[in-house]
Amino acid sequence: MKFKALLLACACLFLVACGGVDPDSPLGQRQALFKQMLKVSEDLGGMLRGRIAYDEARFVAGAAELDRLSREPWQHFPDVRDDERSKANPELWQRQEQFQQMARDLEQATAALVQATVSPPLRRSRLEPAVREVEDSCEACHKAFRAY
C-alpha cells in the first residue's frame, strides 16, 4: 500500500513538473502578457457589444492598459525558436521583419484607441472602429504566425 501511494505521489509530481511552462522563461513571459492582453481586449469589446456593462472610466483605463501591454511581449521573442511548446508558427523566426512590423501595427492600433478616449464624452462611433482595428491587428498576426 505504501509503495502504491509513493508511486502515485511520484507520478503526480512528475506530471506537474512536465506539464507547465516556466513563468520566468521567455515563453512563459510572453504567454502571460498575451493572456493579459486578451482579457483586457475582451472586456473592451464586451463593453461595446453589450456583454459587459459599459463603464467609461473602466474603458479609458482598459485602453491605456492594453496600449501598455501591447509594447511588452516582443522583447520575449528570441531570434530563434526557444521552446517546442510555443504556439508560434516556426515561420515567425524566419520572417522576423514581417513579425516586427505586425507588432508595430498593433502598437499603433492601441495608441489610436487611447487617442479615441482622450476627449469625453466618449462616442461609440469613435471607439468601435478603434477597437476593431486592435482586434484586426491581433487576428492578422495570429493568422500569419500562430500555429493552431
From TrEMBL:
PROSITE patterns assigned: CYTCII, PROKAR_LIPOPROTEIN
Keywords: Electron transport, Heme, Iron, Metal-binding, Signal, Transport
Signal peptide: 1-19
SUPFAM superfamilies for the chain: Cytochromes
KW Oxidoreductase (keyword) present: no
Gene3D superfamilies: Cytochrome c/b562
InterPro entries in the record: Cyt_c/b562 (IPR010980), Cyt_c_II (IPR002321), Cyt_c_prime (IPR012127)
Coiled coil: none
Pfam families attached to this UniProt entry: Cytochrom_C_2
The protein's name: Cytochrome c
Upper lineage: Bacteria, Pseudomonadati, Pseudomonadota, Gammaproteobacteria, Pseudomonadales
